[in-house]
Structure formats: C-alpha cells, structure tokens
Amino acid sequence: MKHDQKLDATALPVIGLDAGEAVSPGYYGRRAAMLARLQALGLPVPDGFALSFETVNNLAQGGPLPPLPELRSGKPVIVRNSPGQRSWGGSPGGKFLGVNPFEPDALIELMGEVPAFEVCLRLVSGYSKEVFGFDPVSPEAGADPVSLRDDVAAALAEFETSIGQSFPPDLHSQIAGLARAKATMWYSVSTRVLREAKGAPADAGLGLIVQEMPLGQGETVTGEVQFVDSGDGRPGVFGVARPLMDRKAGREPDRSGNDLKDVSAEALERLRHAADMIGRDTGDAMRVSFVLNGDDVSIVDAVPVRRNARADVRISVDLAKAGRISREHAILRIDPVSLGEHLHQQIAPDFQRDLFGTGFAASPGAATGRIVFRAEDAQSAAARDEATILVRSETGPEDIRGMHSAQGVLTIHGGNSSHAAVIARGIGLPCVVGASGLRISFEDRTLTAPGGRVLREGDWITIDGTSGEVLVGSANMIPPEIGGPLHDLLNWADEVRALEVRANADTPADARTAREFRADGIGLCRTEHMFFEDDRIGVMRRMILAEDDNRRQDLLDRLLPMQREDFVQMLEIMRGLPVTIRLLDPPLHEFMPTGPDDVAEFAAAVNMPVERLKARLRELSEVNPMLGMRGVRLGVVMPSIYEMQARAIFEALIEVNRTPGKRAVPEIMLPLVTANREAELIRARIDAVAQAVQRESGMSFEYGVGIMVETPRAALRAGDLAETSTFLSFGTNDLTQMTYGLSRDDAGRFMREYVSLGVFREDPFRTLDIEGVGELLLTAARRGRERNPAIVLGLCGEHGGDPSSIRFCQVAGFDYVSCSPYRVPVARLAAAQAELLSRDAGRSHESPDA
C-alpha cells in the first residue's frame, strides 16, 4: 500500500496541527499536513487538530470518537475533509460546529447578535443535512435580532420534531455525529467508485480536520488569492473574497473570477507576504485560502495554483531563476506533451464549443476553416488565401499537397499512426483522425454527425487536434508562444540530456523548422515525398512505366537534378549536423493515379490508351503491397533507382562542401532490410557511385550507410547487419506492425476498445510496446554492439516523440531518437527528464559506502 493511502493504528488517533512533520499526509491527509506545515512557518493558522485515517475508519464501523484536545479560544470550529490526495475528497468546504444554539450568549458577545444567529442557523442547517439528510425549513432571516432569534428557535424545533431528538449542544457530540456521517459517506460504494475513477485505491483513507474559525466583531470575509495568472503565469493579483455570512456563502468560490474589493491594501500585503513564504517553502506558486477580520489575516489552506501548460512553464522557470527550485526540478515538473500548447495555436478559452463529433487527437493544435472534401479544392482555396479543413475518409500520398494547403485535416478512419496522423505531425498541422461517428457523402458533399446534424462543403468548422474534438463554427485562437520561458527551459534541458534528438524532415521547409527547434540533425528524410510535386510526379510515373532500361535511365536522369537540388537545400540548412536520407521505400503503385479521371488524364499525357494504362497499373498492383516490392527490394531488383538517388546525394554534398562553412555529412539509410546480403548488394552499388562522383569532382567526402530495422528478423539478425553498417535506425512504426501483425491504418477501428478492456495497456503505435517490440530493440542493440561496438543506434518511428518511449531509449543506451519537427521540443525535454531520472536511479542503487 502506498504511503499516502496508509491506515496505521500506530499513528496518534488525534493530533494537533502544531505537531509539524508528525502530521503526515500518509496518516492524516494532504490538507492536514499542509496546515501543519503552514503553522510551522509561523503563519497565522487557526488552532486545530486532525483525526487520522484509522480513526475515521473506526468511526465508519461504529467505533467511538477518541478524546479530543481543548481548543484555546473556544470559538466555533469548522470540520473539513483531508484525504490522501485532495482530488479524492470532494468539496474542500466545511461545516460549522462548536456552538450551542440554545445558549448563544457567548457567541453574541464575540460577534454581535446578527452574525451570531446567522452562525447558529448555518450550524443547524449544515449539521442536519450532513448527518441526517434533512434540511430544516426556516423563513428567510431578517436583519433584526428578534427575527433571527425566532428563526433559530424554529429550526431547532423542526429538528427535534423531524429527528426525534434534541439538537446536540456540545462540541464533542457535534463532532462525533458529523465525523461519523462523513466517515460513513467516505466508505460508501458510490463514493468509493467516484474516487477510484480519479485514481484513488479502493482502501484510500480519509482524515478530518477540526479547526477554529477566526470570527470576531465586524464583518468576517473569506476568500482565496494567488499572485500569478493561471492563464500565462505572469505576476498579478487574482482571487475572490466574500462576506462569510453572505446568503451565497455556501457556494464554492468562482475560481475564474477576480473580485478582491473586500480586502484592504494592508491585508492584501500580508497575504502576499504569506504566499511568498509558502511558495519559498513548497517551491511552487500557491493559491492561499484566508479569513479576514478587518485587517487581521488568518490562513486556512494553501494549494498549488491551477494553471494551463503555458503558465506551468513560466511559473517553473521563474521559480528556478529565483532560486526556489533547481533547474533540474523545473525540467522534471513539466509534462513534455504539454509543450504542444506552446508550439501550436489553441482555441480561446471563452469560445463556446458546439461539439459536432470526436476522434483521435492525432496532431496537436487547433484550426478553423471551411470544409473541403478534395485535396485539389484545398490547394485552390489556398491560392485564394482562404482557410480550409480537408475532410477525407482517409488520406494517401496523393493528398499531401492538399494537406500542406489546408489549415487542418479531419479523417473518418485511421488511428494515431495513420498516414494523415504521421504527415500532419510532421508538418505541424492540426489533425483529428478516426472520427468514425461522422459520415461523408462525396456525392452530396456533406458531413453528417451521429444525431443527423449535417454540415455542407463550405461550412465553417474548427478541429482541436489536442482534444480530438470537431466543432461547429469558427473559433478565436490563442497564438503559439515559443520564446521566453520555454526557450530557457529547453536550453536547460539541452545542457542535461545525453540523448540526441533529431527530426524527421522530408523537405527543405521541414529542415528549416527542425533547425529552428534546435534539432541535432535529421534522423529520417523520406525521399518518396519529394516525388509528389507537380513538376516531378509525371516524370516519376513515366519512369515506373518504362518498358526498357534505357528509357527508365533517361527518365531517372531527368529526376536526378530535381533530387540533387532538394538534397543541396537539406544539407545546406543542416550543415555540421547529420542528415539521414532514406532511399525510396514505398511500393511503386503509390505514385500512380487512382481515380478514373486521373487515370484518363495521365493516359492522355503519355499518349497511351486508357485500357493499356489500366493493364499496366494492374501489373503493378500487389495483394499485400506493404510486404511486397518495396524498400530495399526495389534497390535490388531495380538498382538504377537507388543509384540515381545516391548520385544526387553525393553531387549535392560536393556542391555544399565547396562553399565555406561546416562540412555536411550525409547518412544513407536502406529501408526494410531483412537479410544482410540485401545490404551488401546495395552498399556495393552506393560505394561505386561515391567513387565515381569523387573521381569526376576531384573531391573526397565522407558518408555513412546504415540500415532501417523494421522487421523482427532484422532485429534478431542485427549482429550481421551491424558489421558493415555505420548505424542501425529502428523504424518502430513498421516494426510494431510486423511484431503485432496489426495494420496501423486500420487499428483505429478497435484500438479504443482494446485499451479500455486492457488487451493493450496503451496504443502500441503511440507508446512503445516495451514487452514485445522493446525486447526486440534490446536484443538488436545488444547483438549489434557485440559485433560492432562503434555502431550508432537510433529510433526514427513516431515513438521518437513519445516521452515514455524516449525513457526506454535512454535506458537501452541508444544514441538518438528522431521525431516530427514539431515534436522536437517535446523530445528534448523528455530526453533531459530521462537523463535526470537515470541519474536518480543510479544514485538510489549505490551502496551506502560508495
């Protein structure tokens, strides 16, 4: 059992809040421990005591209330819950006790008649509701003492009539009744189910706090205040305050409001001083609950300020700069995934969300635009400077240009590793996939929600790629915020991390983004995406259809300068950093036209009968193309394609290195290798091309050749592959597919159910499967380094941007991870956290004498 869930009979059944560290959160709850901590700081915390988890548990089972300590002032008290975690215990509000409503003279002397009778009414009402589930009906209290006295008498009489006993007049009896009611409710089935939904264990304990309420003459004000903005973390004064006896005082404060008009300047300064002391002690920005009598301040609680992701970064960085926490602590306290809120625009909090549908949150950020159903329409709209959301059943390579033109992408099918999701993350495009409840009619150009609501092409929608929501209408946006505190935090992370973070970048624009985000190089450049440009796709298709080697070579010679120019730009942008270029990978049919109109148009362009073209396309089709003629198999069977790509890389390298600056060093990656002989054949051709280019140019250069490990067999034979390779880069997208026998494009149809039923702990395409795929990676790493100790190990799948997968790579001794450019900041922070956690784990395993 975890410490903060502990029921232990050795703990004192009742302990004073002045007992300091003895008031442990593991025995008395978080709120009680915080109050003891505040009192130890010398802050004005009202006197009180706490009942242990074990005491409350005994009360729930009918046990007696143990003897209670005397409180110094004899003022009314308030009773509040104190669970192991604050989120488990319902409302933080409490109930008044410790007043004899039959003899209120002492209270009248303390407070005056009107507020004293108000307290009595609140006591009787609150106690009746909590203990007996009965709400005594009393008339609306007037402002004069006589009416109020009559109201109290009426409430007491109704209590006795309804309950069959007199209202308990003494503190001990009131506490016993209320504490037993709270204990019984805490251990009820419904309450247990609710807190278990919040992550509480079934046997989570509840403590109770009994604390004096600092009442006195004049108006008593309660409230909460914080001195940073929850929205952006900047300094300021934010809070709420209200009269204690306000008829609405039983409600929880509006935490989003900001109304401190009842707080004097002197009291506010005291609260600022208290918040500063608490912040120095806790290492956090705190929201302080208080009670005021005039300018006299009492502190009754403190909790960390609620904050969004942007505020969290600023607060953590400011605390570190002020010396209240270490830089390492600042790094560790930020959830890396939350950085997406900095890197992409988000929907403004005041936008009224009109939900149309939901899917998988595939690529963070939000976007607004008019619905279009074809990639070409998105491109046309972009030319007119019109914002669009591209809506497709699913996307393919032919949609990439449309995706670049749209503000966001919504697909009906697919999961977090589908084509749309991967491409969207790579280009920083908000994306929602797998919105299976929606229906597209391409004929009618409509999008229909489960309830029958219909949107038409041209209607405005907003997608939230952070939450997976599809909304009706155009939302106001909060722009990205990349500099300032985030820049400082990531600089600190770079000083700590050992793992390199590279980017998956397929275009010069991607490379520039990667450089802006301080990537350590390019870990994956997918060259196939370069061939889909309008001026290239036609040549590429003609090359694929060429019926003899000479014709194919002529067309490859036309493609060569296009590829070379791409590589010149990529290498120039990434000078001094590694650039890993994967040779052509997908099956050739993916480059060919698909729809009947596109087929007819291309047939006319190449002067080929449509039926002849269709026959050629059938020849290219495969039963299972992702396991067919693709990857290195293309290079073995059609070597001229890879030779052209190698020449383009080396000629680009010569051109870049002729100019002053850091030298460029490319790494050529062979995809889908399963046998070492495949790699040997392609390596020999690449080396031959390199030698030819060096002779022709009169210049020498360096390059590396490595393997993309994507199949279980390649992982198991990593020792063989490593002998003649510069690096092994694990393509965990395909490796996960092949290990599970599971299509990442189709897994979205059932992944939610599999995760909810516990078949999979997490979506294995989003978070690395440590038990299966992870074992293959560890085996491959060990065997590869046994045969080639200098081998560089990397991971270049989508998992390269997942924090838990990055921690695995750290432990496994990898050299780098590679992820989409917009996930580079996430990975940089996650890599630093992995390094710090590894250091802590190492220290914890050191012997005492070390």
Would you write up a description of this structure?
The chain has 850 residues and is of the alpha/beta class. Helix 4 (105-111) packs across helix 5 and helix 5 (113-132) runs parallel beside helix 6 (145-163). It is built from 31 helices and 30 strands. The protein is 42% helix and 17% strand. Helix 17 (508-516) links the parallel strand 23 and strand 24 (522-526). The strands form 6 sheets. The chain has an 8-stranded mixed beta sheet. Strands 23-24-25-26-27-28-29-30 form an 8-stranded parallel beta barrel, surrounded by 5 helices. Strands 1-2-5-3-4 form a 5-stranded antiparallel beta sheet.
Condensed summary:
With 850 residues, the protein is an alpha/beta fold. The chain has 31 helices and 30 strands.
Question: Main traits of this protein?
Answer:
eight-stranded mixed beta sheet, 31 helices, 30 strands
Find the count of extended strands (DSSP E, 2+ residues): 30
Q: Note the total helix count.
A: 31
The helix content, as a percent range, equals 40-55%
State mean pLDDT (0 to 100 scale).
89
Poorly predicted spans: 1-9, 247-257, 845-850
Radius of gyration using CA atoms only: 34 Å
Structural class: alpha/beta
Q: Main beta sheet: strand number and arrangement?
A: 8 strands, mixed
* CA-CA gap between termini: 30 Å
User: How would you describe the shape?
Assistant: elongated
Sheet with most strands: strand arrangement: 11-21-20-13-14-15-16-12
Bin the strand percentage.
15-25%
